[in-house]
Amino acid sequence: MRSHYCGDLRKEQIGEEITLMGWVHRRRDHGGVIFLDVRDRQGIAQVVFDPEREESFAVANSVRSEYVIEIKGLVRHRPEGTVNSDMPTGDIEVVGLELTILNKAETPPFPLDDHQKVGEDVRLRNRFIDLRRPEMQEKLRFRSKVTSEIRSYLDGNGFLDIETPILTRATPEGARDYLVPSRTHEGSFFALPQSPQLFKQLLMVSGFDRYYQVAKCFRDEDLRADRQPEFTQIDIETSFMNEVEIMDIAETMIRKLFSELMGVELGKFPQMPYSEAMKRFGSDKPDLRIPMELVDVADLLANIEFKVFAGPANDPKGRVAALNVPGGASLTRKQIDEYTKFVGIYGAKGLAYIKVNDVAKGAEGLQSPIVKFLGEEVAMQIVARLEAKDGDLIFFGADSEKIVSEAIGALRIKVGQDLNMLVCEWAPLWVVDFPMFEANSDGSLSALHHPFTAPSCTPEELESDPTTALSRAYDMVLNGTELGGGSIRIHAQDMQRSVFRILGIGDEEAEEKFGFLLNALKYGAPPHGGLAFGLDRLIMLMTGTDSIREVIAFPKTQSAACLLTNAPGEVSAAQLRELNIKLRRTP
Ligand code: ASP
């Protein structure tokens, strides 16, 4: 057995005989003396082997990187001049007395201290080695601390940790399901849960009052940098609490995490209605660290000849918004071209701008391809509304409301980051008063959150004008990322049926898919609500990482595959037969 972890050795152990077990991080031969840097999960210690101890010296001479070894040795002060203040164990070294090789290792596919130059695919294929790197160890250790803090907070507040099934029926959260064929029920499939939503609601009907789970969720959707097909939620549900109380419990939990694990005081989170977030920031998850806002200018442009602006300005579904970039007049033509390409990703057909060189000179002080189309008066009205100063630049978006909000909202973030405009490190907020539904291109409606979210009106009001109805949902946003979200749920059967009807789910289909929920709502369902946090994203933000894959031990690639195990993989003909599945290969 080891007596100490390598990385935990300090001056206090000087003079002690100890036993270490770990991996050879590096081996150096220094004029007859061999130094082994030995690594374990706590860190690295330096062990010295002297030729006078022939046996252990010979073994030390034969070990290579990543061999697994056991060392008995004596802790001593490092000789004067060799103390390394960059290493936690840098005051001491271990004189190696005995050395045993527990296992040999082939040369690793990449050096552990030079991962920057190693492609992510190589790292993922050899994840067990990649995870040996101290940064990765640190991230996973931090992740473990976060879940432990969360558990202790929720346990302390009377929440019960209850597991819900992985093999289940579809839970609609807006993604495609992962399906698992049933062997015992020919032609039938389980769905992996997109979230434990329906089960946690049933647990409230059962009277558990406060539930949580560190839950795996599965969503088959096109992946982006911050998405994974399977991910972890901190899933929470409560009974008899309103949104103010639920948000307070959740906010206190996040504040405590930041304060205790990072020494960061987040303060009270502001709240912002969805409509305001979209208007001012073009996003329902605004990054409040960037001090720029979208400003509507359609009213100033409604009567001009220039159709590119006048069209959307007069269209009820259109939007014309401007963004003043302080100091932006120094952007080069090339940079502006790049931003034009960037907004193109969001469907914007162009990116008009005005450089404000000298406000006092009126339109003459403006440099822009569009001022001649706007006319001097309108141009100056815009400059005044945006409070633009000499040296600023105003960008414009004119299109459908959706395109303008998304494109200029994203541009705001990109420019803010490129020009280092962030005014603080952490900017949390709650976004509230979401619409119940969003319209699809064919005119049908989808639930903005999920179909179990309670509206803030009666069923009659909801059915008479679903498009304007607001929901009792809330999202927690941090630095432009949605950390979590939830809502007060529907607990009355008639309201649930109304929502299904509005979503085009007829009574028969509702019965077939969600009969168990509708049934449960008949038998004394308490008012309830909750929320779920995306644990991976939370850890990603807390550790300052830019990919969710860096904080998951065994993540999948952007194409939803595991390079380590080669999953998904083919299965044998016998397995398929047993499942009554016949593959239809595209020729
Ligand atoms: N089930 C929701 C989700 O996965 C969270 C919630 O409403 O509690 O986003």
From TrEMBL:
It is an enzyme of class 6 (ligase). ATP binds at residues 219-221, 228, 482, 534-537. The keyword Cytoplasm applies. L-aspartate binds at residues 173, 219, 449, 489. GO terms for biological process: aspartyl-tRNA aminoacylation. Keywords: Aminoacyl-tRNA synthetase, ATP-binding, Cytoplasm, Ligase, Nucleotide-binding, Protein biosynthesis. Gene3D superfamilies: Bira Bifunctional Protein, Domain 2, GAD-like domain, Nucleic acid-binding proteins. Residues 197-200 are annotated as: Aspartate. The record marks 30, 81 as: Important for tRNA non-discrimination. Its main location: cytoplasm. One of its GO terms (molecular function) is nucleic acid binding. Residues 140-555 form the Aminoacyl-transfer RNA synthetases class-II family profile domain. It is found in: Cytoplasm. Pfam families: GAD, tRNA-synt_2, tRNA_anti-codon. One of its GO terms (cellular component) is cytoplasm. Its EC number is 6.1.1.23. It catalyses: tRNA(Asx) + L-aspartate + ATP = L-aspartyl-tRNA(Asx) + AMP + diphosphate. Belongs to the class-II aminoacyl-tRNA synthetase family. Type 1 subfamily. Aspartyl-tRNA synthetase with relaxed tRNA specificity since it is able to aspartylate not only its cognate tRNA(Asp) but also tRNA(Asn). Reaction proceeds in two steps: L-aspartate is first activated by ATP to form Asp-AMP and then transferred to the acceptor end of tRNA(Asp/Asn). Homodimer. This is Aspartate--tRNA(Asp/Asn) ligase. The gene is aspS.
